[in-house]
Amino acid sequence: MMRGMVKHLRKLQFDAHKNIKLEKKRWEFTDHRIFGYLHWFLTIFEFCIALFIIISVVATLINFITGMLLPTIIASLPFYFPGPSGPAQIDRDCRFMTEIVPYTIKSFRPKWFGLFGEPTPIIYHTPRSRKGHNITVIPIDRRDVELRYWVDGDRVDISGLEPFKYNRSVDCGEDVAKCLDLGFLGVTIAVPPGTSGSHTFKAEIVQQENETFVWGDRRRRRVKMKVDQCV
């Protein structure tokens, strides 16, 4: 009987030792699997951050090229027109106009990477010419931004226009005629001729002092702009 009890105790001791080894292996396998999941999570997270940075840089470059660099390059090109040699005759009354830039959509975008920050202005450089220009700007989409304008650093007085009426529920899409019918404030800015080359036109969103601009569900505010030149 004693031999049977000793044999039974040895078997229990062996089984307990075997179970401890199995539990240890099971925990080791579980730990290894957790570290594997953590490694994959960190890899995906790093990939998302890298992709976000690349998209932000590309968006910034596109915004810079289309909004500032390209107009500057175009403005630096000489403007040729037929006529006799000698000083050009300037039509100061600008009775006749010809369209040199058709209606084109321009956008105010966030300052930082096109994702956040204050809205950047829209800047246009007139071609190098001794002829005057008319620049027409009409806000589109929703009626939720008021604009002001500058020519060569001087603010344009548009106080004669009707007061701006904020109503973001009014949406005219890209239809210029519909936007004007719905009370969007379109303007035509006369840029005078000059002898120093091109002029710089700037449009910007009016903001209250010390107030952060709220973009809401859209990361841009759009206008349609066209340029006419005196004949």
UniProtKB/TrEMBL annotation:
Provenance organism: Amanita muscaria (strain Koide BX008)
Protein name: Uncharacterized protein
Top-level taxon: Eukaryota
Lineage: Eukaryota, Fungi, Dikarya, Basidiomycota, Agaricomycotina
Keywords: Membrane, Transmembrane, Transmembrane helix
Stretches that traverse the bilayer: 34-55, 61-81
